[in-house]
Amino acid sequence: MKFFKSALLLLMLAGCAPQAAFVQVEMKEVPGVHIAVENKQIAVFGIASANGGDSLKIENAAMALADKFGQDRGCKDPLPVFSLSELSFGSLESESFDKEYLRSLMYKSGADLQILLHSLKFSNYNVSTVAEYDGSAYGQKMVYVPYSARMDVYDAIADSVVFKAALKDTVYMSIISQVASKNYSAVVEKQLPEVARVVGESMGTLLSAQWRSQERMLVNYPGNSSWEKGIHLANDFKWKEAIELWMPMVDNRNSRISAYAAYNVAVCCEMLGLYPLALQWADFSVKKYRFEENLRFKEYLKMK
Fold first, then answer.
1. Total-model pTM
2. Mean residue pLDDT across the chain
3. In angstroms, rounded to a whole number, what is the distance separating the alpha carbons of residues 239 and 264?
4. In whole angstroms, what separates CA 59 from the centre of its chain?
5. Residue 262 belongs to what domain range?
6. Which pLDDT score is estimated for 7?
7. The domain spanning residue 249 has which CATH number?
8. Handedness of CA 80, 81, 87, 89 (dihedral sign)
9. Is the pLDDT of residue 289 over 80?
10. Which of the residues 18, 95, 155, 164 has the least number of beta carbons within 10 Å of its own beta carbon?
């Protein structure tokens, strides 16, 4: 990542003894809206277009969404998936559904929390050549397929749509085809029902907290046993113990050493979920000595 590489270069070019150290961490990203599932029966409804031409795609997407949601929420049993036609709902583009019909679904399906997946559309795709094999009439193509889909979550007990989302993205497909061929429609169309599963899983990630792998930079002083021990503790995710080693260095008369130590403490506080305290230490670090990483980290913490 350029962000971390630039910080490393900054420390080196400045002719300082400190070096950058990197820690791989798993960060939990929480969705903007909390959807309570406790003591609720949940079902996913894939709503196909009126002509039914996308029924297999929407069904596959709905099943993938159900699997993802069930895994993320620790559901013991697979979530039931139902296939419906948009004719039942009238206009899905409008702000309000036919709530009377949605309430009837609760009685038919037994689900008082209904996840509605609909308006799945694949747009015109683009094709680029990855490789053409010598002595062969076939080559590898990369196909870029834009798509859009919408999802609504209806709580029948509260009689309210508690979540709405629209997703636009692109799926990448690698296909093997004849080099001379320029008509990939049949190949792409055949793969779209499987591609729809990717769309469904992506929609599922919007409903629950997700763990993402991220990288954090810490400042290390090679040769300083206490400082290096702090880095080793951080690599083992022992953030409190690392803080205890770096805290005495915060009072160092050298403003750079103080700033680097305070920055490390700020990172550890973030890892512990102590965001206000992390921001205080990041601010302290910047006031002692400004460098690229503590400035960016402070701005990042302001948005938490």
1. 0.60
2. 80
3. 10
4. 23
5. 2-23+217-302
6. 37
7. 1.25.40.10
8. positive
9. yes
10. 95
